[in-house]
Protein: FAS1 domain-containing protein
Amino acid sequence: MRLTSLTFPFLSLGLATAQSINTTYVAGLLSALNGAGLTSLVSAASSLNSSTVGQQLLGELSAGSNGTTKFTIFAPNNGAFSGVPSNISGNPSLLADVLAYHIQTGNISTNEIASYPNTTIGRTLLNDSTYVQLEGGKNQVVAWSKQSNGNTTVLNQNTVVNVLSNTVYQNIQLYIIDGVLDIPGSLDAAMAANNLNTLRTVLSTITVGGGSLFTQLNSTRGFTLFAPTDAAFSAVQDQLTSLGSNMTALQAVLGNHIINGSTVYSPTLMTQNFTSGAGESLSSHANTSGVFIFSGNTTAEVSKPDVILDNGVMHIIDHVLLNLQSDSSAASSAYASATSAAAHTSTEQGPVGSTPSATGSAGGGGNGGKSAAVGLGVGSGWGMIVVGLVAGAFIL
Ligand SMILES: *[C@@H]1O[C@H](CO)[C@@H](O)[C@H](O)[C@H]1NC(C)=O
Ligand SMILES: *[C@@H]1O[C@H](CO)[C@@H](O)[C@H](O)[C@H]1NC(C)=O
Ligand SMILES: *[C@@H]1O[C@H](CO)[C@@H](O)[C@H](O)[C@H]1NC(C)=O
Ligand SMILES: *[C@@H]1O[C@H](CO)[C@@H](O)[C@H](O)[C@H]1NC(C)=O
Ligand SMILES: *[C@@H]1O[C@H](CO)[C@@H](O)[C@H](O)[C@H]1NC(C)=O
Ligand SMILES: *[C@@H]1O[C@H](CO)[C@@H](O)[C@H](O)[C@H]1NC(C)=O
Ligand SMILES: *[C@@H]1O[C@H](CO)[C@@H](O)[C@H](O)[C@H]1NC(C)=O
Ligand SMILES: *[C@@H]1O[C@H](CO)[C@@H](O)[C@H](O)[C@H]1NC(C)=O
Ligand SMILES: *[C@@H]1O[C@H](CO)[C@@H](O)[C@H](O)[C@H]1NC(C)=O
Ligand SMILES: *[C@@H]1O[C@H](CO)[C@@H](O)[C@H](O)[C@H]1NC(C)=O
Ligand SMILES: *[C@@H]1O[C@H](CO)[C@@H](O)[C@H](O)[C@H]1NC(C)=O
Ligand SMILES: *[C@@H]1O[C@H](CO)[C@@H](O)[C@H](O)[C@H]1NC(C)=O
Structure:
């Protein structure tokens, strides 16, 4: 197809958007995508004009047309689009959100992509509060890495999505991929998808702030959960059973698996120490064999890093961090710092956690969707939030 024969209908529209759309620039981008054979993506992108979310997206991309901002785009090939259900492809607003999830801010070059189990995290343009409820109104991220089989893979997808090739259009680093990416879902869905059945039961049993820890986490804004596998729980069943209905002890143990108020992806995890939701130190160490987490005198290896959630992140681990210690004042102050840090979101220009933030401008700060800090230590320490023990209900 000759590029000059293409028509981009939205170009003729005078749309009122926050950021103006540079039609020359967008047309050039679509031509480049067409030139790469990505006709289905071009067709999907041509519907962006018909939704507010899509218009915002075109405006955001256009802001980079003078070269100030760089972007990295995952561009699904035609085969990828054939698998997209019509309830997504026929819904322009949802399709715009899906496409926004394919665009990362900053130039993430091939030599910055980490080898698994380390991951590369990119901050995407997806900020629709229907689909993302991170602390401070932060945009959703995408996780990807180089696999031992030599492929570069986008993580957390229902079907494996590989990078096929890469190219550059002006300020945009383009990676052609063989799947359309799934927008991350809830903790509830991710626990089911990863068979974390015992963890779900345990979290459902523990009561904090008037609800179960499970429902609280599933609806809070911003947290990191170290999620032991079913096998990990089986291995410490005797120790957990011996805690019986001691809710203080159970809260401490599970609280030591959480960073309350902060969504910490593995690149950041590896360079800092944290205070857990129970007020204890959480540290990590990475080497060529893996990433390890330390709490009290227990250690676990991360068996699956960076399971991205709509409101946080989960790292699956192979041992329960059986630390019964807690410090409610340390938990409170860590939560207060996390909340205050979240209010000053910045725009990453490259992989999250591996380069200093480029700008310090305030983020969206959206308050729609999930409420901030439900239950988990608002003004009080973790160990202090016992509201109605579920007596004797801790049965594995
Ligand atoms: C629009 O994009 C074109 C092509 O990328 C660029 O040359 C031009 O400077 C941009 N215009 C504005 C106003 O940024
Ligand atoms: C956007 O472009 C399509 C063609 O791709 C056109 O049919 C539609 O009318 C345009 N949207 C609006 C809101 O005009
Ligand atoms: C490029 O565009 C952005 C957003 O419109 C603006 O903030 C920036 O100052 C521009 N830079 C140059 C060099 O024109
Ligand atoms: C689309 O429809 C499928 C069933 O065909 C359903 O499983 C899925 O949840 C729907 N997706 C959306 C976004 O509505
Ligand atoms: C690696 O990626 C290629 C596409 O580039 C794909 O055909 C192949 O099946 C992938 N290999 C594995 C082991 O997933
Ligand atoms: C991104 O960085 C790589 C490596 O520095 C470079 O080769 C590439 O051209 C850059 N891409 C863009 C869009 O600037
Ligand atoms: C978890 O949150 C999701 C929305 O993010 C919701 O659909 C789901 O029903 C919630 N699950 C529970 C058990 O509250
Ligand atoms: C419950 O566990 C806490 C923390 O390990 C411990 O300090 C307390 O003595 C225990 N209470 C009972 C009744 O065993
Ligand atoms: C984290 O804590 C451990 C153990 O206390 C310490 O050895 C390490 O230096 C700390 N790391 C950082 C980045 O502060
Ligand atoms: C992961 O990162 C750590 C720290 O930078 C490094 O020591 C380790 O070798 C990396 N692991 C892999 C598999 O690349
Ligand atoms: C560490 O383990 C020892 C025995 O193995 C135990 O007595 C002690 O309480 C543990 N310390 C912590 C902080 O969990
Ligand atoms: C998402 O980002 C766009 C572009 O910066 C902005 O116009 C919009 O208000 C943001 N939406 C939310 C919900 O923060």
